[in-house]
Every structure is written in structure tokens, then in C-alpha cells.
Amino acid sequence: QVQLMESGGGLVQAGGSLTLSCAASATIFSFNFMGWYRQTPGKQRELVAGMASGSSTNYADSVKGRFTISRDTAKNRVILQMNSLKPEDTGVYYCYAAVRTTHWWGQGTQVTVSS
After folding, report:
1. How many Cα atoms within 13 Å fall on the side-chain side of residue 52?
2. Which string of DSSP letters, residue by residue, matches 45-110?
3. Phi first, then psi: what are they for 29, rounded to 5°?
4. In this model, does residue 94 exceed pLDDT 90?
5. Structure confidence by residue, pLDDT tens digits, 48-89
6. CA angle at residue 49 from 23 to 88, to 5 degrees?
């Protein structure tokens, strides 16, 4: 059983930065895909940033140039560095991991960006 644990969310002013961390209970080398999703009330979760097993990355258009996803393999973590934050970035961020047909979700961490 794989567990994903997010941390690093909080309240920040527009233009500021936050670093989100997703710690996995299994080696991240085992995952075909890891990523960060964002959800706001009444809306479906959307992929913000993802990284495949070959280290290829994918970003939502709204965060390109501001967010960076990376892996800390020694600590089995995936990192989301968020810079130049905007109020539109506010939401609950969820860590996601998948191995072929199996996937897991974290509990989510709240990110609030004030004007």
C-alpha cells in the first residue's frame, strides 16, 4: 500500500513563493507518473504539473514559467516549486502517483494566495 503525504501549503501574498512536497512511502523510481493536481470548490481536479518516468514534464498553461516540478529521489519526494504566485493559483493541491493501471492520491494541502 502506497501513501502520499503533502506538505508546504499555506497563505502567501501575490508575487510570493511556496514549495510543496509530496513524500511517498515507496521508492519514486517505481512510479510511471507523478504529478500535482489542483481543485477549487465545485470544480474537477486539474493537472498542474506532472513528471513521467523518463523525467519529461508537463505543465498547465496557466503555470508555465512560474512552477517547477522535480524529484528528490533520496527522500522519495516530488517537489513543486511555485513562484510569482497569483490569486488564481488558490486551491487544494493533491499529489498523484501511478504505476500502470494502479494509482494513488494524497490528502491535499491548501494553498491560498491573497491580493
Report:
1. 6
2. -EEEEEEETT--EEE-TTTTTTEEEEEEGGGTEEEEEE-S--GGG-EEEEEEEEETTEEEE---EE
3. -65, -20
4. yes
5. 999 998 889 999 999 999 999 999 888 889 999 999 999 999
6. 110
> Averaged over 101-107, what is the pLDDT?
94
CA angle 105, 48, 61 (to 5 degrees): 160
Distance CA 50, CA 59 (A): 7
3-state secondary structure of 37: strand
Residue 113, C-alpha cell as written in the block:
494566495
Per the CB < 8 A criterion, the answer to whether 6 and 95 are in contact is yes
Spatial CB neighbours of 65, under 8 Å, sequence gap ≥ 6: none
CA–CA distance, 80 with 20 (Å, rounded to integer): 5
Across the range 36-54, mean pLDDT stands at 91
